[in-house]
Amino acid sequence: MKLILLILNLVLLNSCGASKQDSLTNSNENAMNREKVTLSGTYKIVVIDDNETLPDDLTISFDNKTNKVSGYSGCNQFMGDYTFENDSITFGPLMSTKRFCMDSINTIERKMLSALSKTQTLVFVNEELSFMSGDTVVLKASKTETKSNKVAQESDYIIEYSATTRGFHNSLKLQNGIMTTLKGRDLKEAKKTCSEEDLATLNKLIQELDLEKLNTLESPSKAHQYDGAPIGRLIIEYKGKTYQTPAFDAGNPNKYVAPLIEKLLATAEMGK
Description:
DUF306_Meta_HslJ, Mago nashi protein, 16 strands, 7-stranded antiparallel beta sheet
């Protein structure tokens, strides 16, 4: 009987040891798969809660030297501070611009900002950053490393151009390397990713401008004031400040901004 009990004890000890070893092995594998998070650069938001059908231009950027966070949440730019230590993160109050957009876009924006406020930890695996609230993933983002995205982020401009009259509206918006256009009475929306060459040219044209000068530009012609000609407007947002030209005849802007507008229209493949 004693011999049988001794054998059973040895079997149990070996079983427990194997189980403990398996557990340690699994833990080590998980630790290896779970990469150390270094917050730096720009990430594209790919999932909010369980929603994977999102606009292409949702972003979040981290500056690990200043602990500043910024990004685009669908309608507005946001910015603020964060603290990050041992995978735990806390976002400070986030400030944002005050644009109004379609209800569907506003809903996405609210959910994205709400997800950030709930985030407690970050997990970085296979170039994907998961924002966790407890054990729940509230947001996922992937690192953007393409040259086009870098050029777009370095410029940090939002450019809008519109040509409007009664019953007619064409507009475009360039942000984060994405060109969004709205055309016609039904405001049909289209998006395209700008080429590296187009972005470089547009950035150069903008950098040649004194943005403070935009609101002083005179319209070369005044047809929009009396015969219903389309009204043109150019708006540039940069570092939270908005610069805008006075209204002008669409197709005949002040020569100071004409090269930029012509390049915008050519890139968007829109008529004047």
